[in-house]
Design goal:
Layout (H helix, E strand, L loop, with lengths): L1 E5 L2 H12 L7 E5 L6 H11 L15 E4 L6 E5 L6 H7 L1 H4 L5 E5 L13 E7 L5 E7 L9
Parallel strand pairs: 2-5, 2-6, 4-5
Antiparallel strand pairs: 1-7, 3-4, 6-7
Helix pairs in contact: 1-2
């Protein structure tokens, strides 16, 4: 488990961009944290690190998935906020994207915890009292359960 502190959206994006350089095809990045904690900002940084401008990265709240094609690896950005059942999850195409050769960034991943593959990288964003964000990275059995 590894944690860093971010004092601004720019720092969050820069950290995510550096992380993106280490990701490979098929990697799932499970983003966890409440509303407004920086999940989309983190994904914007991933996009930049994969070779996209990042300026057009927005939360796929209503689209469920946004695709960013043309960088070092495709980035598939999911929002699972409204996913409440296996049927809902299948309708997003999530399982097809696992084999599409890109990186999957999944906001509200706690809603699909049972479907996340082995080797998922968990990114948990927490607000501290001074407005700083603690960003914690963990894999597999090292990740903290939701609400921890």
């Amino acid at each position: 488990m590894r944690s860093v502190l971010s004092r601004s959206p720019a720092e969050t994006e820069a950290f995510a961009a550096s992380l993106a350089e280490t990701l490979s095809a098929g990697q799932v990045v499970a983003l966890r944290g409440g509303l407004g904690l920086g999940k989309t900002c983190f994904t914007r940084g991933l996009a930049r690190g994969l070779g996209y401008p990042g300026d057009d990265v927005i939360s796929p709240t209503f689209a469920l998935v946004n695709e960013y094609i043309g960088g070092r690896l495709p980035l598939y950005h999911f929002d699972m906020y409204r996913v409440e059942s296996w049927e809902d999850l299948y309708s997003t195409g999530f399982f097809d994207y696992l084999d599409a050769g890109g990186v999957l960034a999944v906001e509200w991943s706690e809603n699909i915890q049972a479907a996340l593959p082995e080797g998922t990288l968990y990114v948990t964003l927490c607000a501290l009292d001074d407005g700083t964000r603690r960003i914690t990275l963990s894999k597999g059995e090292d990740h903290e359960p939701a609400g921890a």
